[in-house]
Amino acid sequence: MLTLDKIYQAAYTLKGVARKTDLLYAQNLRHDAEIYLKTENLQVTGSFKLRGAYNKIASLTQDQRDAGIVACSAGNHAQGVALAATRMGIHSIVCMPDGAPISKVEATKRLGAEVRLVPGTYDDAYAYACRLQEETGATFIHPFNDPFVIAGQGTIGLEILDQLPDVDAIVVPVGGGGLLAGVAFAVKNLNPRVKVYGVQAENAPSMRQSLRAKAVTTLESVATFADGIAVKTPGDLTFAMAEQYVDDVVTVSEDEIAAAILALIEQQKLIAEGAGAVGVAAAMFPGKLPIEGKKAVCVVSGGNIDVNILSRVITRGLVMGGRNCLFQIALEDKPGQLVGVSQIISNCGGNVVSLHHERSDANMAISSCYLRVGMETRDFAQIQAIRDELTRAGFKIISDRTQELQ
């Protein structure tokens, strides 16, 4: 069973291994609350997962170390296991879903682990790892449903209370629930006044659904670019602790996660992966959490985002914030139409970044064409001004990629 003493013991074990990451005030993320960032994206291996993995592996007997260890992970736990095992001279096999970001797979190999890629999701990798553990007799290092792992993650709660003693709320990303359980247990035992909220991707709400059903629930599928929290089934231990210590679990959309990643890059000069940014997303968008007038800490749990998808995430974030839009406009196929559209956009302060002229659509009149215009804009108000001016000038806007986001 987890105790507060075991979390303090984990903090001692992690000295000289895990960083006491900075707590940064993020004044621009929200005007009606004080938002702070616990920067676990700057942790060794780029994620909080090192804490739990190292604490668990450090607890193994010599016989267990000699037998080797097996783990499963979407990437961050994998790196924590690999680093800890290599430092202690233990052979490690890490099973990862074949869709895991290449950067995480390669980083795990560089840290000394043997990587096995498994077709499917995290849960498929978990099932394979369990079979491998039975075949080899190695020790399985669970990514979240283990008291030593939870104790390691709980050291983050100790650090937050030390860095900001008058904190009102702590916002924590949730996949399997190890981080949430550890932080909530530590914080609620030391200061029950502090609210602890979990945040999941709306397409992977396993803990949220389990809490509402009052029983561990398995999702049929998960679909989110926040791969670090794409978990179908929370742990029974983490679920029980969440039931007892967590105030609420909320969800955020893919677009809201993208907007949070962009805000962290632009305003805080921090890189976060999707899973690491969900707490910031929940704090940024009104109506998610009751933190108005409060001091709230968002745990930015990881920064290991694949650079191959970062540009797409930034684009989604720009659209979500009214900084990028795409109009499809019906034009008469005659001279001067493109000049007229360009002039209006220019007069309104927009910047055209792409144009596509389409004459072959079977649904349009023979004497007309479609113009797709991509623009950089300041905000939704400027987009509306451009829309109004185009309409006033007689241009017909067929579709607008920003309307559904407002």
User: What order do the strands of the largest sheet run in, or round the barrel if closed?
Assistant: 1-2-10-7-8-9
- Total DSSP E strands: 14
Largest pleated sheet: 6 strands, mixed
Q: What is the radius of gyration? A: 24 Å
Q: What can you tell me about this protein's structure?
A:
The longest helix is centred in the middle third of the chain and has 17 residues, at 147-163. 50% of the residues are buried. The model has no long low-confidence stretch (mean pLDDT 92). The protein has 15 helices and 14 strands. The chain is of the alpha/beta class and 406 residues long. 43% of the residues lie in helices and 20% in strands. Helix 7 (147-163) crosses helix 8 (178-190). The protein is elongated and about 80 Å long. It has helices spanning 4-13, 49-58, 62-67, 76-87, 102-110, 122-136, 147-163, 178-190, 206-213, 236-245, 254-268, 274-284, 307-320, 337-347, 380-392, and strands at residues 23-25, 34-39, 69-72, 92-97, 114-118, 139-141, 169-173, 195-201, 248-252, 295-300, 324-332, 351-358, 368-376, 396-400. The strands form three sheets. It has a six-stranded mixed beta sheet, with helices on both faces. A four-stranded parallel beta sheet has the order 5-4-3-6, sandwiched between helices.
In short:
The chain is α/β, with parallel strands linked by helices and 406 residues long. It has helices at 4-13, 49-58, 62-67, 76-87, 102-110, 122-136, 147-163, 178-190, 206-213, 236-245, 254-268, 274-284, 307-320, 337-347, 380-392, and strands spanning 23-25, 34-39, 69-72, 92-97, 114-118, 139-141, 169-173, 195-201, 248-252, 295-300, 324-332, 351-358, 368-376, 396-400.
